[in-house]
Amino acid sequence: MTVNLTLLVLMGVLFAIGIYLLLERSLTRVLLGIILISNGVNLLLLHTGGRAGLAPIYDPEIGAEEYLDPLPQALLLTAIVIAFALVSFMLALIYRSWVLARQDELADDEEDRRIASYANVHDTEEDAELATETTEFADDTDSSGAQLLNPRRGTDTVDAAAAVDETDAVRGTGDVQGSDEAWTQTDARAGVHPDQLDVTIGAGRADGPRRKPPVDPDADPTADPDVSADPGAATDPDPRDGPDPTEGGQR
Amino acid sequence: MNTELLNFTPLAVLIPFFGAGFAFAFYRNKSAQRAITVGALVLTVILEVTMLSQVWNGGAHAIHLAGWPAPFGIVMVIDRFAALMLVVSSIITLCVLLYAVGQGAAEEKDDSGPVSIFYPTYLILVAGVSNAFLAGDLFNLYVGFEIFLTASYVLLTLGGGESRIRAGVTYVVVSIVSSMLFLITIGMIYAATGTVNLADLALKLGDLDPSTQLTLHVMLLVAFGIKAAVFPLAFWLPDSYPTAPAPVTAVFAGLLTKVGIYAMIRTETLLFPGERINTALMIVAALTMIVGILGALAQADIKRMLSFTLISHIGYLVFGLALSSIIGMAATIYYVAHHITIQTTLFLVTGLIERRSGTSNVLRLGGLAKISPVLGLLFFIPAMNLAGIPPFSGFVGKLGMMQGGIAENTWITWTLVIASVLTSLLTLMAVARIWTRGFWRKPEDADETPERQLMSKTLAHSRAANKRYLPMSMVAPTATLVAMSLAFSVFAGPLMDFSRAAAQDMYERTPYLEAVFGPERTEGVREELEEFAATFLIDYELDDDGAADHAPVETSLQPDDEDAVVVPEIPDGDDQ
């Protein structure tokens, strides 16, 4: 079987980038990864037909080996349609996740976290708080404000929601003091600049028993991880009433 | 065998599909939608039971769609194994549907989500599963997988609440990755052999270079292993399943992973028979059992606990199919049917517990046995069955696998036998913990604040509340499933015989090939294949010429009045 080298290289590149993107925590990147991988697979299926040939329309004067094998193209077509449906479904899921939780990240399984906390264990790699830049979609002011208030934003959904709440409250009253306070408190607790927070918390906790994550003093009570982890209450947490018209919704 | 009747096999896929279309067309009229859905499934069950009775006595039958001959056209193949899976799966889905209808009627007021989507999607799920069971070529198998997976994405995220979306994203991404892997493997197999027809592959794959064979084999198993939730690839399952509504979780837990197992069994018997990677599979099986059940012991939520036992019991199935002996495979087939029923039943019962008490967290449960003895009974039987306590069917299946393992008598099979005994005990411990906490202790003794619904003033009060919380329309389907699981124990003898015949067919492969290609082409390879299949028959007693091969399984639980049961004798003539 002969294979077109250009297509082969292209396929490899698609797979490589696709797998890289798939490993990201951000959902849109995961989706892009899936799209690239599925295109890579489609190219692979195309390869299996062998080298290019004539269209498979029967002509008695043409030998069988001159034709292109049509079966891979039939498979390919089906695969494209299926991938298309799945990608649109994923998009809908991601949008829904964004509407509900204001985040473009894969959230942790809270029940898992709770069970792990029973055992009083801490895995440096697993449990390190991720200080991530949350999303590409929020207003700049919003995201920066929320990050100042709560550097852990994005590690669990309720927290992130609470952080947005806080930002609203701060902006509403014009109380800039509040955010400063929160920042300094977080600083004092961790003893470092927020940028390095993730590393230090992870390392600091590795030897000691698992500590309750710091809670901002003026945080919404629902941000308490114990309350949010309760499965009884977690059945369908009240979706935040749609996107706030003042932020992100009308851009 | 009346082959004309079997020509209606594709209807097993078509009826649910058309039902879905009509149900969707009537999305405004809930009762019409319900009637169409239930009607379509009842028809499917009748059709599939007829088909099972047709193939009970003999071999396989292939339907060449649109009349195209085998390696070129699409074939659907129904043999004993496929027919059994079809019947069990459609009875399960019908019971779960009735349960969902009951639940929908009970929760009409707090309308939870777009129910008009539920019925059509559910039927599409059934169609996809049937298609996967009947698929005669790899690509059709892939399409079957995609149909039911896509339906399952919709069902899992039904209502679009936050926790379901979160769980749904993980589930969808993992499933898509496994499908991509499957598709890549299909491409590679086509490049290597020039066909995707399973029967054709069975003849051609053997001629490939051994290392190529190994690569393709492992890739297929990994792709199916993700779907079947085999150990290192199983962590998506307890994360995603418990968030769905009870009927959806029940049907997912019962069916979807088993389709993965079905595909693995086909891979191991039809495409790549032999003992090439059996040791690796057994190590994986042991890890699946142990890690799964240890995870279950750590959980406080019943649904999550059951999800972990699901993983751990997938380990048994992998063990059985890795034995590569007819007795091991027979036990596996029996165990698959048993486990589909049990796991579904347990999730349905958990749904009832959740309705009665308002939570499925055992830390907040108590006193259920006193409040509702029926619920206690409905939980107790399948729970003991899951743990494999004699005389239930779980015991019969596990015994068969251990028999196979002991007969093979290598260090790895002995390890597996020990691991499976250990897993059984730990399963018993896990379900006993639910039982003592949820059912036996008083609600006041609960570790956390018990649910208010459990704290009625008097027993009479709470018994009266049962009627409201546990409507007959939900209890009856659950009870039917419990009865079905008991039937597996009562008719263990004939069913085991049937499974052994199915296993014999699958290892011999001639019935399958003959159905697809017709006798002429099969004749050339028949002798070779039969010789090959003979290596899978293990002689337990070396001096009696194999006469007592399957004796332990036959004698252990055979009902005394077996002759009263109208079951035709299976002329397998292989082992006597």
From TrEMBL, chain A:
Membrane topology: Multi-pass membrane protein
UniProt keyword annotations, A-Z: Cell membrane, Membrane, Transmembrane, Transmembrane helix
Name this polypeptide is given: Multisubunit Na+/H+ antiporter MnhC subunit
UniProt region (Disordered), positions on chain: 124-251
Composition skew (Low complexity), residue ranges: 224-236
Transmembrane segments annotated in the record for this chain: 6-23, 30-54, 74-95
Alphabetized NCBIfam families for the sequence: PRK07946.1
Subcellular location: Cell membrane
Chain intervals with Acidic residues compositional bias: 124-142
Family membership: Belongs to the CPA3 antiporters (TC 2.A.63) subunit C family.
A cellular component annotation (GO) from this entry: plasma membrane
InterPro entries xref list: CPA3_antiporter_subunitC, NUOK/Mnh_C1-like
From TrEMBL, chain B:
GO molecular function per UniProt: NADH dehydrogenase (ubiquinone) activity
The keyword Transmembrane helix is annotated on this UniProt entry: yes
Keyword Transmembrane helix listed: yes
Region (Disordered): 547-576
Domain NADH:quinone oxidoreductase/Mrp antiporter transmembrane per the UniProt entry, residue ranges: 135-423
Pfam families linked to this entry: Proton_antipo_M
Annotated localization: Cell membrane; Membrane
Highest taxon in the source lineage: Bacteria
Membrane topology, as annotated: Multi-pass membrane protein
GO BP terms: ATP synthesis coupled electron transport
Transmembrane segments annotated in the record for this chain: 6-27, 34-56, 81-101, 113-133, 139-159, 171-194, 214-237, 244-265, 277-298, 305-327, 333-353, 374-392, 412-432, 469-491
GO cellular component: plasma membrane
Keywords: Cell membrane, Membrane, Transmembrane, Transmembrane helix
Family statement: Belongs to the CPA3 antiporters (TC 2.A.63) subunit D family.
Name the UniProt record assigns to this protein: Multisubunit sodium/proton antiporter MrpD subunit
